[in-house]
Amino acid sequence: MTTSTPLTQDELKTLVGQAALQYVVRGEIVGVGTGSTVNKFIDALAGIKGDIKGAVSSSVASTERLKALGIPVFDANEVDSLAVYIDGADEIDGNGHMVKGGGAALTREKIVAALAARFVCIADESKLVAALGAFPLPVEVIPMATQQITRRFAAMGGKATVRLKEGQPLVTDNGQHILDVTGLSIADPLAFESEINQWPGVVTVGVFAHQKASVCLLGTAQGVNTVTY
Ligand code: 5RP
Q1: Options 3.30.450.20, 3.40.50.1360, 3.30.9.10, 3.40.640.10; which CATH number does 9-129+210-228 get?
Q2: The pTM is what?
Q3: Distances in Å between the alpha carbon of 175 and those of 35, 141, 171, 189?
């Protein structure tokens, strides 16, 4: 009898990063997200770089990785639309609604996702949840609005904390700050996203319900599970 060692989380990320290649439309520009899972996808994408025009990237970090691997990076303003956007998630529910922004790139991720006909989410199975809300919700904010937004979250039972980097507020690629909010119950992701996004000073809330996933490639012990929404 043979016993196999379970795949590590890192190996599951590699698996789904490679599986995402099948969704990349040859001859076109692909939308690329941000994070450790997307890094695996970018590494795999380098293997077919001759077959694509290039990428639109959702962060400085992904842009640097793409360019280092010789993949041309286009500005989002240079494209009218994309066939596909590939990105990770911090949480994804049974409807393809996600929480994103653990890597602080949520605003650019939403912008690139909005250009794409299809959002392919790549994630290991730990990201699958029955309902969004356990992962601290990232919200990109204009710094002068931090305290009033914190009070608004408190009024709905949430505790917002400014994300720090080396003891100072983390500054996003857009020059803004991130609040991480715990204690929320996100029963209706579409309504929640719409409501928070219209608060003055909110740049982007990390609920992706309007730009939800069309497909999720979930890395499991049994291999890649493809879920379509
Ligand atoms: C970055 C994101 C990432 O997609 C999310 O944090 C998942 O990252 P990882 O693949 O490293 O788990 O939203 O802003």
Answers
A1: 3.40.50.1360
A2: 0.96
A3: 19, 10, 5, 27
